[in-house]
Design brief:
About 35% of the residues lie in helices and about 20% in strands. The chain is built from 11 helices and 10 strands. A 6-stranded mixed β-sheet has the order 6-7-8-3-9-10, sandwiched between helices. Helix 6 crosses helix 8. The chain is globular. The chain starts with a helix and ends with a helix.
Length: about 300
């Protein structure tokens, strides 16, 4: 009996040695988790205003300036911009000029350091997080693929249940029909342990979510980046068709179908350089946009 007790005790205590070898990693991981939990949010939502669906002037940016935390150079400087409801607006400029920053401020991922944004007549801080965010469908440059089925990766685009027929139709629109042509169909597992998606396929999955979303304002950050010209044209036509009756604000440095937008906004070196319709800017002598089209 003593022998068996000794052997049992040895088996119980034997893993403790290897456990102590990993104690440093466990402590470091716990410290990182604690840092995240205790991190203070960059933006606090205390507003209670209701969005006015009848407002014709949707967005007004007044003397807007912003610098990212722990950086010195301004991402936006003294920007003034008005966007009317139902318009299609393209924000143009080279990489790093401040285009994407404007979208981040519109959804209040950050607050401006100077100036203000009016949304449907109220300061953007007057809205609760839910009342503000439900107005937008925001496609960022980085599309996250969840470790789940293709169906559930698409369903998160809309609070209402989506039919399989609608999902399949949209996947065909964005050129991802090969995913549903496989044996699993919409039950195809993506992410960890599933079918990996290329960068272009991830971008198209994000575009499919946009086309399945019913929000009244579309914010798209370089939606056709990395796509070939023919696919880009097809995707843009699908986006423009989907945006009928909605407000579309699209960041891009490409000029495909740019003449179909109501308002062009050119940003360079954190400043708004010029704005107007396509016909106004293309005929402006020595204009920044005209020079840009001549270089391409």
């Amino acid at each position: 009996l003593f022998t068996f007790a000794a052997l049992a005790s040895f088996e119980i205590l034997m893993p403790l040695g290897s456990a102590f070898l990993h104690i440093g990693q466990v402590i470091a991981s716990a410290e990182r988790v604690t840092d995240i939990i205790e991190q203070q949010p960059l933006v606090t939502f205390n507003g209670k205003a209701e969005f006015d669906q009848n407002a014709t002037t949707l967005i007004e940016a007044k003397d807007l300036s912003f610098t990212y935390p722990e950086r010195q150079n301004r991402a936006l400087e003294n920007l003034n911009l008005t966007i009317q409801k139902g318009k299609k607006v393209a924000i143009l400029g080279k990489t790093g000029s401040g285009k994407s920053t404007l979208l981040q401020l519109l959804v209040r991922n950050y607050d401006a350091n100077q100036g203000e944004i009016l949304f449907a007549g109220n300061r953007i801080q007057a809205y609760s997080e839910s009342s503000l965010r439900q107005q937008f469908c925001f496609l960022t440059q980085r599309v996250h693929v969840f470790s789940d089925t293709l169906r559930n990766n698409l369903q998160l685009a809309n609070h209402a249940p989506l039919s399989d027929e609608r999902m399949i139709a949209v996947l065909q629109q964005v050129g991802l029909e090969k995913l549903v042509n496989q044996e699993q169909g919409l039950d195809l597992w993506l992410g960890d342990g599933g079918r990996p998606l290329s960068g272009g396929e991830q971008r198209r999955l994000g575009l499919a979510r946009v086309l399945l979303n019913d929000a009244p304002i579309l914010l798209l950050d370089e939606p056709t980046e990395g796509l070939d010209r023919e696919t880009e044209r097809n995707i843009l036509q699908a986006i423009l068709a989907h945006s009928v009756g909605k407000t579309l604000i699209m960041v891009t440095h490409r000029l495909t179908a740019i003449e179909q937008f109501d308002q062009l906004v050119v940003i360079d070196n954190s400043r708004l350089i010029e704005q107007g319709s396509y016909s106004e800017l293309i005929n402006k002598e020595n204009g920044f946009f005209k020079q840009l089209t001549q270089r391409i």
